[in-house]
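Form 7-S
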Amino acid sequence: MMIAAMMVAAVSANAQFEPGTWSIQPKIGGTMSKVSNMPNFKFGKIGNTNLDVDKSIYTGALIGAEFEYQVAQPFSVAAGLNFSMQGCKWGDFEIKKDGDYAKAKDLKMELNYLNIPIVANFYLFKGFAIKTGVQFGFLLSAKQKATTETKVGDRHEETKESIDFKDECKKFDVAIPIGISYQVPTIPIYIDGRYNLGLTKINKDGDTNYKNQVFQVTVGYKFAL
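Output:
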């Protein structure tokens, strides 16, 4: 049974490099993203404290699949469909005075997209490829979220906020993916890393162009069709 499974894996692994063959690759992974030109979170001045919270990296998940056609031994084209959690985040902050305090954490902007990447793969050697192309994204949701906690005297309160601002965002996004991929020897398991550089701004109004900047890492299993 084990020998048969290994033979199937070997056939799948070799088939991907034969010109004229198709394959499909389900994949799952994570994203690290930010939004260009997004300012620090400024709350103004409270007492003697000027609240200016630095930005940090937003982390999310990605799941999808990709179809690949091997045009020639060192070259293939692929088109995919994936759900990607993107956005930006700010650091936590806390103000204390005479035993009272105000805290805020999980300050973030969540942007969920359905992305369609179309890339060309150039195999430098068997199993290792560099890639680039174009990615079209469709905005599914856009929310600002935060958790605040206050204590004044004997009164303690914690609030979770979620504001939908999808109507303020453009529904279509274009990005340039640049990355590399590597197949684990003997088995068709692929590790893929890409940087998606946003070309179109995500905001409808305003003079500032806010654009997606996303780094993603996925692991997939490639099946010959």
